[in-house]
Fold:
Amino acid sequence: EVSLVESGGGLVQPGGSLRLSCEAPGSLLEGYDLSWVRQAPGKDLEWVSTIRSLRHGGTYYSSSVEGRFAISRDNAKNTLYLQMNSLKPEDTAMYYCAKAYDIASRGQGTQVTVSS
Structure:
């Protein structure tokens, strides 16, 4: 059973920044493609970003966050990150980390609210 724990969400003003963290087992962090997804109230899950496994490399972003968000991982800390800059009200959502292509592996999520 995959165990992913997200943290770092909160309330931030438009234009602000947040860094989300996702604690993951080391083998998962290094060996699998990992993603961040989000779900706004009343909407479907939306893919945000993916980082490929160490073997393959590469990062990918949805057009809605390209240039504002950055996904990364720290293998020594067994942690996946999502740096979010220039936040907009439409970024308000519950954010989850998950194995790519396996949304059921996501954790409990962390709430991000962008509001003045």
Observations:
- The beta strands are 5-7, 10-12, 18-23, 34-39, 45-51, 59-61, 69-74, 79-84, 93-99, 110-114.
- The longest helix spans residues 26-31.
- The first strand starts at residue 5 and ends at 7.
